[in-house]
Design goal:
Low-confidence stretches: none
Distance between the termini: 56 Å
Oligomer: single chain
Largest sheet: none
Number of domains: 1
């Protein structure tokens, strides 16, 4: 049995892995190192993949909404109820667990409790969840339309001021229609959302391949 020498210049040379690459046979070329990939090249290579995945997901979701609008609407109502319950729980936690003024604690508690009650109301039946979802969207559009129109009217330097006013008025009218006739309006809104998702999905897929062709022009070391 051969023992490793304990002293001397050749102590354990056969066990020293630093000598593996110390000498090479004559005529043998060193292995080339892999090319360095710069951050911009890596970002451009990953960007088109992310856009492609989101485009495919939007396209599939849009097709599902158009094929099964009723089921999609019921699923949206259930998800909306879950959102209200979860957001209400977080608001109650913030009311009791954070250092806020008493008035803010009261407002957070009332808002959280109301959100939980409305969320549980959504689970009583599909019609309740659809009705509440339609009213929620309608009130949101109503407030958004008013604020967008007033902001554009009071600031002459607003970019695209005319279009902002026009869009605010359309959003305001859509909110009124949705509140006045929630079930019929939500059905139409579901079809519009399905078509919009399909258009967005196709656009993002085309954009992804365009980004891919442009990404090939980015130097790998950049």
């Amino acid at each position: 049995m051969t023992e490793v020498p304990n002293s001397g210049p050749n102590r354990g040379r056969e066990y020293d892995d630093r000598n593996v690459h110390a000498s090479r046979p004559p005529g043998e070329r060193p292995e080339p190192e892999p090319p360095f990939e710069g951050p911009l090249h890596a970002l451009s290579r990953a960007a088109w993949q992310v856009v492609l995945v989101t485009g495919i997901a939007s396209l599939i979701l849009g097709v599902l909404v158009l094929v099964w609008p009723g089921a999609s609407l019921l699923a949206a109502g259930v998800l909306f109820g879950l959102y209200l319950v979860i957001s209400g729980i977080f608001q109650l936690a913030s009311a009791f667990g954070t250092h806020m003024a008493t008035s803010l604690r009261v407002l957070a508690f009332i808002s959280g409790a109301l959100s939980i009650v409305l969320g549980l109301f959504c689970f009583r039946g599909p019609m309740q969840s659809i009705l509440l979802l339609a009213l929620w969207i309608g009130i949101g559009w109503l407030i958004r339309g008013i604020t967008q129109t007033l902001a554009a009217l009071h600031d002459p330097r607003t970019p695209g001021r005319g279009w902002q006013i026009f869009l605010g008025i359309i959003t305001f009218i859509a909110g009124i229609v949705l509140i006045d006739s929630p079930f019929r309006s939500v059905g139409v809104l579901t079809l519009v959302a399905g078509i919009w998702l399909v258009v967005v999905g196709v656009t993002e897929i085309v954009t992804a391949f365009s980004i891919r062709s442009r990404a090939k022009e980015v130097p790998q070391t950049l």
